Amino acid sequence: MKKSNKQKKDNWLWQVFIVTFLLAMGFGAISNTVVNKLNIYIATILLFIIIGIGIVFDLVGMAVASAVEAPFHAKAAKKHKGAKESIRLVRNAPMVSNICNDVIGDICGIISGSIGALLSVSISSKLNLDIIVVSLLISAIIASITVGGKALGKKFAINKCTNIIYIAGTIIHYIWPVKQNNKKG
């Protein structure tokens, strides 16, 4: 017996909740442990990497919401690697966009804030500075880079959605390829 749309939505919501919870716990634990063990410079590099991951996934989420299938069918007909995976991304655009923008993007935002807080404590104690001032500065820097990067990425993602999705599809091809006998892409 087929599942109803409501059951599918309920399952999807629970899956998103559980995956988000597990990813946030895992990435948070790893990043907090790493930041506590590293010097300020390496922790800052890690912070920028996390922010960059959030921006890139936001870009992919926006691109998949803007993309159409047709260019990827032409590439699939020519057996281009990543074309079938690109079709799969576009066909599942709402789910892919949710994962990229909401799940991964939000987790990166939360983790970057957590790293920022740890950096604030570390910097203020090592340099004997006021924790509130350091915390405000670091929070403002994180927010401006994150929001600014995502704002710049939105227009780019819309204008270059086909290229972005094809790159994502090609990467996915090497990690989780579409099976050859899969007629739906």
Structural account:
The chain has 185 residues and is mostly helical. It has one domain. It is built from seven helices and no strands. Helix 1 runs antiparallel to helix 2 (40-66). It is elongated, with a radius of gyration of 20 Å. The mean pLDDT is 90.
Quick tags:
84% helix, 185 residues, single chain, mainly alpha, 7 helices
Sum this structure up briefly:
With 185 residues, the protein is mainly alpha-helical. The protein has helices spanning 5-37, 40-66, 70-77, 83-91, 93-126, 131-159, 161-175.
The helix/strand class is mainly alpha
Mean pLDDT: 90
> Share of helix among residues?
over 70%
What gross morphology would you assign?
A: elongated
Cα gyration radius (Å): 20 Å
The counted number of beta strands is 0
SSE sequence, one letter per element: HHHHHHH
List the helices and strands and how they pair.
Blueprint (H helix, E strand, L loop, with lengths): L4 H33 L2 H27 L3 H8 L5 H9 L1 H34 L4 H29 L1 H15 L10
Helix pairs in contact: 1-2, 1-5, 2-5, 2-6, 2-7, 3-4, 4-7, 5-6
